[in-house]
Design brief:
The chain is α/β, with parallel strands linked by helices. It has 11 helices and 13 strands. The structure holds S-adenosylmethionine (SAM).
């Protein structure tokens, strides 16, 4: 088994090689979102099993007027990991006096879908798309604010759950540091519940989530010239009770070889060995409030779903 790398590999090739060399073997979940991955994620949000998307849509629609009225004004909404932002639209439309909007997303396809989904949203004075990671994207939006404008960061859906608890706390501190007094943060979290309901949400009957997961390998083949057989890996969703998180894995079916020539890396996975591709940490409503408070935010309000436990928490940056 060769598990070494040459000096020539690109940063991504090196990052992927380092992840595959680690134990457990891991790939960064942001790589799930190429153009196919973003389209597949949109399809996931329509699946009957994926209750979080339904819960979020319902919560945001139901409380749009209250959320809109509670945001600081004049408002520039910066949505991190915006995806299509379809479910954000009712809240945006309810902001009194209108708003400017910036979508920040690592996926150019997500930004394109977002532009279409938010076209002609009532009150939208300007739309901007920034293809970037969360904090650099926010920094760019913050640098361009005009005097007197208030920034509200939207970070919705289960995206915060994709970060480890430490990384989530660090990201909220980073958001706080880039905001000014009078700004705000609207944070979505998927709340803890019976894992028996969570498992199908990450392993649906139509196999869309499986395709979303396996597409990561197809992407590595296309973009990095990685050598492997994506069909040799099975999608697996697991509940990790100790860490209170869902995990997605790609499990080798039979012995599987992977090579990343650009990083001089190769490895073999034994039958049943897996690559961890995504975490979705679950929170309690109280933990969510605490997470924002320890980053320096003040809790303004929290709205919670009943049928599928999810929360939208509004924080002020004082
Ligand atoms: C789970 S999806 C959520 C999309 C949308 N907010 C929703 O709730 O339906 C995560 C989104 O964040 C984007 N994303 C993932 N990692 C990112 C990163 N490090 N920086 C910026 N965007 C990222 C993905 O491209 C994707 O659109």
């Amino acid at each position: 088994m060769i598990e070494a790398a040459s000096a020539e590999g690109t940063a991504l090739a090196w990052e992927v090689a380092a992840g595959l060399n680690a134990r457990p073997r891991v790939l960064p979940c942001r790589l799930l979102y190429d153009s196919v991955g973003s389209a597949l994620f949109e399809a996931i949000t329509l699946l009957p099993e994926y209750g979080l998307a339904r819960a979020d849509r319902k919560l945001l629609r139901q409380h749009a007027a209250a959320i809109g009225a509670a945001l600081p004004r004049p408002s520039v909404v910066v949505e991190l990991g915006a995806g299509s932002a379809r479910k954000t639209r009712p809240v945006l439309a309810a902001i009194p006096g209108g708003f400017a909007y910036t979508a920040v997303d690592i996926s150019p396809e997500a930004v394109r879908i977002c532009r279409r989904a938010l076209a002609e949203t009532p009150g939208m004075a300007a739309w901007r798309g920034v293809v970037a990671e969360f904090l650099p994207g926010l920094e760019q939006a913050a640098a361009e604010r005009r005097p007197g404008q208030r920034l509200t960061v939207f970070f919705l859906g289960g995206t915060i759950g994709n970060l480890s608890r430490d990384a989530a706390a660090g990201l909220l501190r980073g958001i706080h540091a880039r905001l000014a007094p009078g700004d705000a943060l609207l944070l979505g979290t998927d709340l803890e519940q019976n894992p028996a309901r969570l498992l199908p949400a990450y392993d649906d009957a139509a196999g869309v989530t499986a395709a979303f997961n396996r597409n990561l390998l197809v992407r590595l083949r296309r973009e990095l010239g990685a050598q492997m057989d994506p069909a040799g890996f099975a999608h697996e969703a697991r509940w990790n009770a100790a860490e209170r998180r869902m995990e997605m894995h790609l499990r080798a079916v039979g012995e599987q070889a992977i090579a990343i020539p650009e990083a001089g890396f190769a490895c073999r996975l034994a039958d049943g060995e897996s690559i961890w591709t995504e975490a979705s940490y679950k929170y309690t409503a109280q933990e969510t409030r605490h997470l924002g408070a320890t980053a320096g935010f003040e809790v303004v309000a929290q709205w919670r779903g009943e049928e599928w436990p999810a929360a939208e928490t509004l924080f002020a940056r004082n």
